[in-house]
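Hey, I'm writing a tutorial for new members on how sequence and structure tokens pair up, and I'd like a real worked example in the thread rather than a made-up one. If someone can provide the structure for the chain below, I'll link this post from the tutorial.
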Amino acid sequence: MGDKAKSSRKDNKYNTKLISVSAGALASTVIFFVLLALFAFFSLKSGFSDSIYFPAGLVTGALSGFTGGFICVRPIKEKGVLFGFVSGLFQALICCGILFAVNGASAGNGLFILFGVITVFSAFGGIAAVNLKIKKKY
């Protein structure tokens, strides 16, 4: 009976990590597209030049990737690089897949650069989540 309970706890631990990675990837994907929509709205109203779109997309990808890695790793509090990277990989696959479909199946160098930026900054977010110290009140 004791072995079954230990096995159940171990399975639950793996499910928690999977749920955390999925939640981080989905939350960061939503954040990515909300930030892109806000940038599109403001660029439409103010008339930015075309040269600002690519850097703005990279900044949006970096912010959402960092946030997704942080959201993913914060409940786990271990292996920040690994889980942040995996969460960023899922987010990058989802975001780049949607952008690929919207662009009419044309993938330029910018899409591959965005893929790398999202993945790397998500790993940075995982590192930040593990190393975050909570102040204790005495």
